[in-house]
Amino acid sequence: MTTTDQQPLGSPFSASTTAEDVMADRALSGMTAVVTGDYSGLGLETVRGLAAAGAHVMVPARRPDIARAALQLVEGWEVIAMDLADLDSVRAAAAQISDRLDRLDLLMAIAGVMATPERRVGPGWEGQLASNHFGHFALASELYPLLAAADGARVVVNSSAGHTLTDIRWHDPHFHTGYDKWLAYGQAKTANVLFTVHLDALGRDDGVRAFALHPGKIITGLQREMALQEQIDRGWVDERGNVVGADFKTPSQGAATGLWAATSPLLDGRGGLYLEDCDVARISTSGQPMDDGGVRAYAIAPDAAARLWDLSLAATGATPITR
Fold first, then answer.
1. pLDDT tens digit string along 33-75?
2. Which of 39, 144, 185, 274 is flagged as catalytic?
3. Distance CA 137, CA 26 (A)
4. What is the rounded CA–CA span in Å between residue 218 and residue 292?
5. Nearest of 184, 168, 202, 212 to residue 127 by alpha carbon
6. CATH code: domain of residue 195
7. Is 274 an active-site residue?
8. Which residues contact 149 (CB under 8 A, 6 or more apart)?
9. 169: region left, alpha or beta (phi > 0 left; psi from -120 to 50 alpha)
10. Which helix (H) or strand (E) holds 94?
11. pTM for the full model?
12. Is residue 323 part of a domain?
């Protein structure tokens, strides 16, 4: 991927496109997928879309019983236990998936947390970086042989326009010098993008391509640790929790870009790209408002992506991917 590749392709879809629109002509019979974050919001819509098109979907879930209840009207799925903040749990889930599958066509990393109170995970890692990035990094690394065994696998990672809040804080990624929940979220979302840039560089010779995306502004379970008053003050919802903010999407519209990333023939032979509104996003400038869209150059920089990969590999002890 070069910066010249990071520009719209002229997709027939848009910000108002729904999951149903994207999947209307898709046939995924015989394909296998792993989707995290799959028992509410965007993850649930994604599982529904993939399963309706014929894919068999593996569902790693921190609360398996709740996942099964949410998916009871959907066919073609299998739930296994996994907590992204617990690397032993991630490795155990990856081992179960590897025992059940001989290849993996799609890995969709949708689960995440946002603007949480300060939380320490494992050896003192900042919790949002651990859950949003380290957990998915370890899962993808352990499942990589299955991805490489498929014919043109794709890895799709939900990032956010929140990545514009900050680059990786190389001097203090775990906020030992003072915690800021929004900078921690922004760093984790930048990490999501950089992860796909280097994964794509490592995987393209095996036919494994990776994409990051901004799903849009959506009220889902992602905001569960934000006080209602904070959401009201930001203009997102009213006193009853009803969405009132401009340009907010429905969960189906929010899932559309991920499903487009997973299935669109326009992305054949491409990878390491940041997507939004069912198309490739443009590069944005440092002074450009978050809501104007686009991806910051620091989030798709190959050198930074390689640096974060090495940091993540050392931290998690994940199985290295070799070319």
1. 999 986 768 999 999 999 999 999 999 999 999 999 999 989 9
2. 185
3. 28
4. 16
5. 184
6. 3.40.50.720
7. no
8. 102, 103, 104
9. beta
10. helix 87-100
11. 0.94
12. no
